[in-house]
Write a structure and sequence with these properties.
Layout lengths: L9 H5 L4 H17 L13 E3 L11 H7 L3 E3 L8 E7 L13 H18 L3 E7 L6 E6 L2 H17 L8 H10 L6 E6 L7 H11 L3 E8 L1 H5 L6 E4 L6 E4 L1 H25 L3 E6 L4 H15 L7
Parallel strand pairs: 3-4, 3-6, 6-7, 7-10
Antiparallel strand pairs: 1-2, 4-5, 8-9
Amino acid sequence: MPALPERIDPTQLSRLGSLPIKARVIVEGALSGLHRASVHGSSVEFAEHKEYSPGDELRHIDWRAYAKVDRYYVKQYEQESQLTVYLVLDASASMQFAGGGIAKLEYGGLSLAALAYLVIQQQDKVGLVTCGDRGIETMVPPRARTTHLHDLLSVLDQVMAKGGTGDESPAVALERIAEISRRKRALVIVASDLFDSDDRTLKALATLRAQKHDVSVLHLLDPHERTFPYEGLTEFRALESDGRMLVNPSAIRREYLERMDAFLTKCRASLAAAGIDYHLVSTDRALEATLLDLLVARSRLQPGRRAS
């Protein structure tokens, strides 16, 4: 494979070979970013530590050591129980939108593909749930075999290619995970735009966290959804209904941006109150940077801890 730039534009990455190749490139980019972190101060030795190198398990990074010397060290923990990870992809029609970046559905799918690749590399269990459209809803049970990664990514690839036309929220899928995981804690990672008229998704996420599951949310929005950059008479078409509206964007921009800010504030506050790891992600951002942020946030929240 030819040498790749340090930061890969999502549009460029979307054209790079098969989904397994894309997943590996994202993971390697994230780990390379971690390894390239600037190092300051004198060398310090820690008992039962070694300096991080690509391929080491990120869950074993000792953040207290990092705070002291600004260098990444890996602590050698005793054998721990196997982690179960559920990856949840919102495939509703609104996730098809692509204005200033790749489609939210594709960005979410690529992010979860990279996470699946990383989880399997760490010999943990990973499953996939796609939701938002009853025509393409599916569940791949969590497994840890290397061959399972091929099966999971094949399903994910099909969902990303087909897309969705439904308007169902991820809430039903999240409630299903809560039901089948009552006796064993899991890590649940959701990629969604969280567009939900009755806040059922936010409530379902809070329920999962209340059941002691670890929950992370990649809140995906297109840059145009954040900035509303349109000019001149424009027809807007709803993706989850037949609605259409012909308007002058400048006449509604202020109200739109106020409503978007209120929506983001509600999501951020609700998930923070529930103790959920929240990441607002723009679909024009480098995917390896998004993955690195998620991994670092999870390691800081719970260094060395595993679901049991």
